[in-house]
Predict the 3D structure of the following.
Amino acid sequence: MTQVPISVFLPISTVVVHANGVPVVVPIQISSTSETALVTLSGLPAGVQVKYAASDTNPSGQLSFTASTATPVGTTMPTVSVESAGQAASANFTLTVKVP
């Protein structure tokens, strides 16, 4: 029996965050046979924090991005990585930090 591969997807390809401490919430879609997932992000600019919150029934949920006033303005291409059901998947997205 072959295992169904997991996947991760951000339906919003460009996340825009203002450097003012106000969180921006973005959905994250995770396809997995498990109800839990470990979500990590890499390549974020200094001063950007992310919190992951799963839904009640599956690992899909929300990412909340917050940029401090010290965060440099600009565009980066971070990676979101997911581990679930003994497998891993990742996806790149565009993150733009703007002045409020």
